[in-house]
Design goal:
alpha/beta; nine-stranded mixed sheet; globular
Length: 320
């Protein structure tokens, strides 16, 4: 495929891991894009199924649709963060869009991102809206963006956004779109956290002065898969496996590194409460777990701060 004049190349990447069930649907959504100058990257994180074979066969049949098309593989599973970093290292485009193998891009997603960037020349980083679905994509519902009025309000700087983001996760991995330059200059993905690719990376971008923008267009359909690695949770547990990982393994280090001494003490207390829930078994049948869980729900200053920001967000001018 020949490059269109005056249109930047966008590297669109599909994260693959044991993705045989959905990856073809994800790839077809890239093929349908109204935007033409696309480099397609599939990065597989050492799948145990035939995901690589499916992706390779599909690319061989559809290679002419793209400026460039490649399947990246690894001999060792590195987690989603390492998978994202391999994509960033390989990307040749000006812009980068990464999404999971079980999600689906809207047909005009990439065009919407690029046009928004052209109208907002300082927007190296933007978030499109996402629409959730389980089995029937025609019934997908657009998801409200958490604290959007507060975070994206006019006049906010990257420093203002960093102050908010360091205290509460705001953003959307599926809706995320950025310039390759901004991500590389910010240090890329933080490999210390193999299963937390977005939060730590968002903080890096903000710390390096890259303000985040909201693109009020639905750009992706996110499939709800309760059994996924990121959302797996027993009906009898308080926290999902991934939240337990943030508490016990990562200990919210990415947040601590971006907080003032006062807020570090606040987060330390919150972490202590959550750690006790997990250490007590993380089970709803445990009285000890309930004790620490209820204390955390009632007295955790981080939760009260989130409530304060939520109330402020309600009464602020809408950015949508």
């Amino acid at each position: 495929m020949e490059k269109e004049c005056n249109s930047p190349i966008v590297s669109v990447a599909v994260l693959s891991y044991n993705s045989h069930e959905y990856i073809t649907e994800a790839l077809e959504s890239v093929k349908r894009q109204t935007y033409r100058n696309i480099e397609l990257i599939v990065s597989d994180d050492c799948s145990l199924d035939n995901s690589v074979e499916i992706a390779t066969n599909w690319l061989n049949k559809n290679r002419d649709r793209f400026i460039n098309a490649v399947v990246l593989t690894t001999k060792k599973n590195t987690g989603v963060t390492g998978n994202c970093q391999r994509i960033l290292d390989a990307a040749k485009g000006k812009w980068l869009k990464i999404f999971a193998h079980d999600d689906v891009l809207t047909d005009n997603a990439i065009e919407s991102y690029v046009r928004f960037a052209e109208k907002n020349l300082s927007s190296h980083v933007q978030f499109g809206l996402i629409s959730d679905f389980s089995t029937d994509i025609s019934r997908a519902k657009t998801k409200r963006f958490k604290l959007a009025n507060l975070f994206f309000r006019r006049g906010n700087t990257a420093e203002d956004q960093l102050d908010i983001m360091s205290k509460a996760f705001i953003g959307s991995g599926p809706g995320f779109f950025c310039s390759v330059e901004s991500l590389r200059k910010s240090g890329g993905y933080d490999l210390r956290f193999p299963m937390q690719e977005d939060y730590a990376m968002f903080l890096r971008l903000l710390r390096n002065g890259y303000k985040m923008y909201l693109n009020p267009t639905t750009t992706i359909y996110k499939r709800s898969v309760p059994t996924s690695i990121m959302h797996a949770q027993s009906n009898n547990s308080f926290y999902s496996n991934n939240v337990c990982r943030q508490i016990m393994e990562y200990r919210y280090l990415y947040q601590f590194e971006n907080l003032t001494p006062f807020w570090k003490k606040i987060l330390s207390f919150s972490l202590w409460l959550q750690t006790n829930v997990v250490k007590s078994g993380n089970k709803k049948t445990s009285i000890k777990c309930w004790f620490f869980y209820l204390i955390q729900r009632c007295f955790d200053p981080m939760r009260w701060n989130l409530l304060y920001m939520t109330i402020r967000n309600i009464f602020m001018k809408s950015v949508m």
